């Protein structure tokens, strides 16, 4: 499982608001048992702020007989966009022009 998470960097994240599911593609990095991504503020971020329960799907498909899928449920956590936080984590190449997200 860890090898797939470290090799693949595109998946899907699902969130829900008022019984309506919403799923979108997400680019991510896996580090220390967490999935990190960034996003501009929009529908997905508004929904995850309102309901932090999320589900992430990651897959690697070679062909119809050879594939792997990971489905993980978790909590959305918004990381601070402050100078102190960015300085402390500068080795992660955080892009200050985007909001930072930890899933």
Condensed summary:
The chain is an alpha+beta fold and 103 residues long. Helices cover 19% and strands 50% of the residues.
Strand order of the largest sheet: 2-1-5-6
- How much is the average pLDDT? 85
Enumerate the spans where pLDDT stays under 50 for 5 or more consecutive residues: 93-103
Shape: flat
Spatial extent as radius of gyration: 14 Å
Write the CATH fold name: Pnp Oxidase, Chain A
> H/E order of the elements?
HEEEEHEEEHE
Number of strands: 8
State the secondary-structure class. Answer: alpha+beta
Euclidean distance between termini CA atoms: 17 Å
CATH homologous superfamily (4th level) name = Electron Transport, Fmn-binding Protein, Chain A
- What is the CATH class name? Mainly Beta
Return the CATH architecture: Roll
Bin the helical content.
Answer: 10-25%
Number of domains: 1
Percentage of residues in strands = over 45%
Number of helices: 3
Task: Characterize the largest beta sheet: strand count, sense, and whether it forms a barrel.
Answer: 4 strands, antiparallel
């Amino acid at each position: 499982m860890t090898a797939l998470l470290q090799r693949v960097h595109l998946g899907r994240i699902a969130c829900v608001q008022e019984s309506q599911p919403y799923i979108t593609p997400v680019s991510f990095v896996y580090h220390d048992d967490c999935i990190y991504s960034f996003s501009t503020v929009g529908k997905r971020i508004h929904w995850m702020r309102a309901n932090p329960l999320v589900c992430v799907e990651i897959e690697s498909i070679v062909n119809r007989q050879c594939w792997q899928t990971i489905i993980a449920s978790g909590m959305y956590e918004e990381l601070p966009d402050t100078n102190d936080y960015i300085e402390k984590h500068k080795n992660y190449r955080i892009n200050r022009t985007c909001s930072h997200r930890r899933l």
